[in-house]
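Summary for the steering committee. The consortium agreed at its last meeting that each partner would contribute one worked example illustrating the joint modelling workflow. Our contribution is presented below. We chose a case with several input lines so that the handling of multiple components could be demonstrated. No manual editing was applied between input and output; the record is shown as generated.
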Amino acid sequence: AQSVTQLDSHVSVSEGTPVLLRCNYSSSYSPSLFWYVQHPNKGLQLLLKYTSAATLVKGINGFEAEFKKSETSFHLTKPSAHMSDAAEYFCVVNPTGANNLFFGTGTRLTVIP
Amino acid sequence: EAGVTQFPSHSVIEKGQTVTLRCDPISGHDNLYWYRRVMGKEIKFLLHFVKESKQDESGMPNNRFLAERTGGTYSTLKVQPAELEDSGVYFCASSQVAHYGYTFGSGTRLTVV
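What follows is the complete predicted structure of the assembly.
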């Protein structure tokens, strides 16, 4: 069975401080993993993806995520938060051979000026 | 290029009425997907079209939901009759290659009262 757990439903950080959004997954096979972001009234935008190449994946807008198989984690980080990062973030898994994506419940990031 | 377009962006209907959601994928994308986010839950897969054919409709909740993709271009998702638990945000996505490189629309927020 496949599942994705986003450990925090809400995260608040001050502008300029680091961001950490946590994600754990379970999958029967080697999955592809993604982080998507949704800004208000916008579509889901792909931030980054892991597809069994380098375990540290760099994405857009300064975000990156590290695939840790031993911990079944794929946490999203950014060294310095910007006001424009305020949005909802989704960790997503696509198990090998699966027909669809499995989403976490989302983490809403608030950036305090 | 134009992205995935969904309309309406919002719809409020009464229980028992019919609603039709529309999705226009990116031109040339054979693969079209519908996903749904019910309040407080994760985004879940509904179905996948390849051109005009339903490749996988395992996520459709019940027979009150009917999806079509006439001519392999735009798709509609009809809910008839709508129930309160159908409220949520319905996302459409398209891709050139199946299950890779999704582009999502901004979603239709459906409220059944």
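The first strand of chain A starts at residue 3 and ends at 6. The CA atoms of residues 59 and 106 of chain A lie 18 Å apart.
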